[in-house]
Amino acid sequence: MKKTTLAITIGLLLVANTGFAKTQRMTLEQRLEQMEARLEAAENRAAQAENKVQQLQIKQAAEIKEIKAAQGNTPVNGQTPAAETKKNASSPNLLLTGYGDLKIYGDVEFNMDGESRRGTLTKLNEDHTTEQWDMDGRILIGFDGMRKLDDGRFAGFSIQPLADMYGSMNLDDAYFHFGQENDWKVKIGRFEAFDMFPLNNDTFVEHSGNTANDLYSDGQGYIYMMKEGRGRSDAGGNFLLSKQIDDWYFELNSLIEDGSSLYADSGNVQGVDGRSYHGREMSKEKNVVYLRPVVSWSATDALTFSAAMESNVVNNAYGYYNNKGDLVDQSDRTGYGFTMTWNGQKADPLDGVLWNVNTAYMDADSEQDFTAATNVTWRNFELGYIYAHNKIDDFSGVVCDNDCWIDDEGTYDIHTIHASYLIPNVMDMQNFNIYLGAYYSKIQSSEEISSDDDRYGARVRFKYYF
Q1: % of the chain residues with pLDDT over 90
Q2: CA atoms in the 13 A half-sphere facing the CB of 188
Q3: Which of 14, 19, 86, 279 is buried most, with the most CB atoms less than 10 Å from its CB?
């Protein structure tokens, strides 16, 4: 009996253990199946996420391309609140076309002058016989547009309207240019070509002149600076071709204008109205065409040599009428120039020296003019000297009014010393500068001239770029 009970108990335990083992094995299999199912679901979700990322990237690339294609169609006042924008939806916004970059900038320049007299050795015509104080200045607003391709080709424009302190609106540059970067360029409009007579900080050298107009003031002496065919004329326009080959630069500028605009409206000569030359009134017959080729070679990063000439190629463009009623041509003018520049400030802006040596010679009808100059700039201080020699072979004999220096045939030497000093970053503002400038000129003649044969002046210039 005991043996039978023991056998039954052992059998039941074996059956129970077998059932438990089967139950445990089925649970593990189910768990493995669940893990496989979860892994497959995770892979599906990852694939879907990757798909969405690719779609977003494609969409973003398309949006960027669309923005670049019409990048200028964003209003300049794009930060205006949405409510305000909706309120002013009917008012115009400044939009860009998307065909290039537009730069807007400005240049403020105001001067306070003290000088012995105006109109002498200058392009200005005011006549005074004693010292005087004066103020002048202007504000320039510039707009430069530029479109560049990946291969370096470009096209652009520049326009610079001026508003002066006397209430007049004028224009500095206005031109269109196109070409290949660091290779060739074409430039058309109103501008100044290559500077063949740099004066550095020419703060107050009144006879320096920066346009093709009113450079020659009859009876006052002529300091020729290779500017007659340079451009920025109020009576014509420029067409310029240039080419860069390694260290060589070539330029050909043509200026088409009313050639008589070279001479200042006189008022200095008795009996002559308008523009005069050697005491005679100039009459225009047709426009002049100045051709002005320039060659410049950079010997090193600091040293540059430049040579140029300028000549009017149109005969009988202007002149005066003699007693027989015939036109006497005065438009035959040819000039030559050479300049050397050492610019040590490229390598050392603080202690580097900027040094120019300039020469120019003009061969004109009944007059020859030679000019030589040098100037040095170091640590914001500039000092220069200009020598000019005028040889006049013919003069009408009209008595010059208002203390003119030159009223007869002969040779005249003009000596000018000029200096300037830059006070940079006024009030710690990077683009706000003050220039202090002064000049002194004295004339010597083969003929007897008055003892009052010198001119002098000083200037304070306020300059701000923005």
Answers
A1: 54
A2: 6
A3: 279
What's phi and psi for 58, nearest 5 deg?
-65, -40
Beta bridge partners of 216: 263
Contacts of 185 (CB under 8 A, 6+ apart): 177, 178, 179, 240, 241, 242, 243
**Could you give the CA distance from residue 295 to residue 290 in angstroms, rounded to a whole number?**
17
Sign for the pseudo-dihedral over CA of 64, 65, 67, 68: positive
Q: What is the C-alpha separation between 143 and 127, in angstroms, rounded? A: 37
pLDDT digits (tens, 9 = 90+) for 241-259: 999 999 999 999 999 999 9
Locate tokens 């009944």: which residue?
Answer: 366
DSSP, collapsed to helix, strand or coil, labels residue 198 as coil
Q: Identify whether the C-beta of residue 277 lies closer than 8 Å to the C-beta of residue 240.
A: no
Q: What is the pTM of this model?
A: 0.76
Q: What is the dihedral of CA 50, 51, 56, 58, to 10 degrees?
A: 120
Angle at CA of residue 14, ends 8 and 15, nearest 5°: 90
Supply 297's token pair: 């070679």
Phi/psi for 220 (5° steps) reads -110, 0
